[in-house]
Amino acid sequence: MSYTGSSNPEYVNARVRSRRSQLYDEEEYRKLTRMGPAEIARYMEESEYEEEINALGSRYSGVDLVEYALNRNLAKQFHDVLRWSDGRLYQFVVRYLQKFDAWNIKTVIRGIYADVDKQSVDDDLIRAGEFDDRRLDQLVEAGTIEEVVNRLDGTMFGDPLAEAYEDYEETGVLVPLENAVDRAFYENLLEGLTFDEASADYRDFLRAEIDFRNARNALRLARSGADIDPAEYYIEGGKLFSASELSTLASNPDELVNRLRESSYGDDLSGALDDLEEANSLIGFERALEAALLEYSRNLGNVHPLSVAPVVSYILAKEREVENIRAIARGREAGLSEDEIEDELVIL
Amino acid sequence: MAEDVKPTRKNLMAIEDRIELSERGHDTLEQKRDGLIMEFMDILDQAQDVRAELEADYEEAQRKINMARAMEGDVAVRGAASALQEHPEITTQSKNIMGVVVPQIESSRVKKTLDQRGYGLLGTSARIDEAAEAYEELLESIILAAEVETAMKKMLEEIETTKRRVNALEFKLLPELYENQEYIEQKLEEQEREEIFRLKKIKGKKEEEEKEAREAEMKEADKAAAKEPGAVADD
């Protein structure tokens, strides 16, 4: 687990392959959709989630137990991946997993802002990023948002947060801080990395993620009617849009959809774009984008088995498993029908 | 009670005045009650629509938040919710419907744009937007329902009060006044009859006394006349 040393994709891929084989398959999801929350927790207890369910079983019950166990298992799995990785592979993987650092920073800031007790904030953290327990505990212990910003000095979130803190002081809302954290994560994804032939496809995958995020945000802004320049929310690093193009396209969502249709993502997203035009809802579109990314990463893993791709593919697949199980449990709790739940799942 | 009233002409006049006033009040209150009922029926229709809309909005908001919690996780939804501390503002004014003061609720900052909801745009999804939007719509429906249903409740209270007043006038006060009026009129007539009878009696007695006096006079005169022929003989 370090930035130094030689990259060890062979070793990590072998371990990841074994972990991947433990992921739930379609048949297991089908079984879960017929169970209640308590049965789902019981079913998980008999699989790789045993340790987490047992550890959290005395504190939580029902769907909350399922959700916290999923988050804790996710953190453990990703922590293992980071522990195994060295050198360039570690760099690639850690940059992707820093999204959990971003998540944790936002959770801490929101906790302080809403005056939530420290234990609840700590429970909501997903310790799957680069930050170690010590740093995360320090953040949780911070009494003010300013203290959090100061304690992040020296990390990739430090400067953007310090800059956004002034806006926060002026406006009193968390938007500038949250956007600064997410922007720092996205813009750091590709920053300073060099790609060889095998990892070039991984770069395309990251670009696709940024493009999709830009497209989603532009469409959300267009629909909300807010008087905001989409360029303010533009993330550098994608290949499909420039900031000015996105500003123009956001005022004309049909044009934006056409642009996506004509792009290299068009074939993968055509169904979702049709739904978007017909149903006028972004939710199905977002689901399709996630499915497209998942499919893309899996294909990458098959094409370049000795690169970072299988690792990232596993990370995405694991995240998707967590989301699917959580969707089933929460869906069952909310009384959604089996068909409705199955429609929401993304299974490859 | 009619027996408690002094059967005097003055009281009769006062009661007649009160009857006139009460009858006028009764007619006015009846008109007010009918008017209020008509207004109430309009508000009732509106309240039924608003309530149906509120229920639909609630269902929709629940469905959307359930979907958001299912797909994004409870932690993410709670996190996004805690990023907002600015509460909507509600101001109440009042308006007058047929003398009934009903509230008029104005709300501001209920519906928010994406940048006013507190959570960052880059790390959240359309599911959270839609759940937030659905709850904003629900809140607007609740405020409208509060206005309409409070107006309805106040109108209903006023109708009840007016109805009680109309009934009190119609079935209690006016019958009592009519009874008193009749009682006094009967008493006064009786007194009049008694007075006539008494006067007749007095007149009869007086006539009798006069007759007796005349007879006595006549007797005196006769006596005097009887004495006078003797005096003439002496002459």
Automatic annotation (TrEMBL), chain A:
GO terms for biological process: proton motive force-driven plasma membrane ATP synthesis. It is a peripheral membrane protein. Keywords: ATP synthesis, Cell membrane, Hydrogen ion transport, Ion transport, Membrane, Transport. It holds the Pfam family vATP-synt_AC39. Transmembrane segments: none annotated. PANTHER family: V-TYPE ATP SYNTHASE SUBUNIT C. This is A-type ATP synthase subunit C. It comes from Halobium salinum.
UniProtKB/TrEMBL annotation, chain B:
Residues 37-71 form a coiled coil. It is found in: Cell membrane. The keyword Isomerase does not apply. One of its GO terms (biological process) is proton motive force-driven plasma membrane ATP synthesis. It comes from the Archaea. Transmembrane segments: none annotated. Residues 205-226 have a biased composition (Basic and acidic residues). InterPro entries: V_ATPase_D. One of its GO terms (molecular function) is proton-transporting ATP synthase activity, rotational mechanism. Residues 205-235 are annotated as: Disordered. One of its GO terms (cellular component) is plasma membrane. Keywords: ATP synthesis, Cell membrane, Coiled coil, Hydrogen ion transport, Ion transport, Membrane, Transport. PANTHER family: V-TYPE ATP SYNTHASE SUBUNIT D (PTHR11671). Has multiple subunits with at least A(3), B(3), C, D, E, F, H, I and proteolipid K(x). Component of the A-type ATP synthase that produces ATP from ADP in the presence of a proton gradient across the membrane. This is A-type ATP synthase subunit D. It comes from Halobium salinum. The gene is atpD.
